[in-house]
Amino acid sequence: MIKIAPSILSADFANLGREIERVKSADWLHVDVMDGMFVSNISIGVPVVKSLRRATDMFLDVHLMIEKPARYIAAFADAGADLLSIHLEADMPPGIHEALRLMDEKKVKKGIVLRPITAAEAVLPYIKDIDLVLVMTVEPGFGGQAFMEDQLPKIAAIRRYIEEYNPTCSLQVDGGVDPTTAKRVIEAGADVLVAGSAIYGAADAEAAIAALRGD
Ligand code: DX5
Ligand code: ZN
After folding, report:
1. Beta bridge partners of 33
2. For the chain, which domains are there?
């Protein structure tokens, strides 16, 4: 079953309650946290996750685009995140292991994210211990960018690793996903699709979600 995770980065932040209501036929809510260091943009943080938690029962999938994410795992978990995903490029391996340990301590699901430049093999030291791998199909930082075709073989390679080492692990794709590219990432092996502009930019968000599922 394909899961759709609307990215609220493309939502109207002054009306978040209403914007969540628009996407209630989706599966997860994708929350992009940016620190102005790991990526040049600054988006939202812990207080917003806390408010979202009060406003919805949807699964909160929090994508941390921040340097040394171990510093903030407890805060985002306590705010109500269900899953935290951290970039492999955001710290050295001991820092990544520490962040994953803190997620276990807080009982939140654990995700590892790869920037487009990072090779599929980079997930191998972590794959048995995580719940999700996220392959970025744009450079992280902004919504509305063009899908990077050259990431398709990486998605397929990670699907093979998942089948071999941890079949219950989810494979998420984020960046430039629309009904056309969705079909290709699903064929390559993805099972959770993030979409910002393709959903929030549509007049009928529910129809956009159905189109991404291939319905
Ligand atoms: C980009 C974010 C994405 C972004 C995707 O750094 O991680 O989640 O919102 O936006 P679209 O779907 O418009 O490419
Ligand atoms: Zn994201």
Report:
1. 64
2. 3-213 (3.20.20.70)
Q: Which ligand is nearest to the CA of 139?
A: 1
178 is catalytic: no
Pick the catalytic residue from 27, 35, 61, 174.
174
Q: What is the pLDDT of residues 85-141, one digit of tens each?
A: 999 999 999 999 999 999 999 999 999 999 999 999 999 999 999 999 999 999 999
Ligand 1 touching residue 140 (CB < 6 A): yes
180, 28, 148, 90: CA torsion to nearest 10: 180
Tell me how far CA of residue 177 lies from CA of 5, 98, 184, 187, 209, in angstroms: 11, 31, 10, 13, 11
Got the DSSP string for 28-60? EEEEEEEBSSSSS-B---HHHHHHHHHH--SEE
CB atoms within 10 A of CB 100: 21
Cβ contact 33:45 at 8 Å: yes
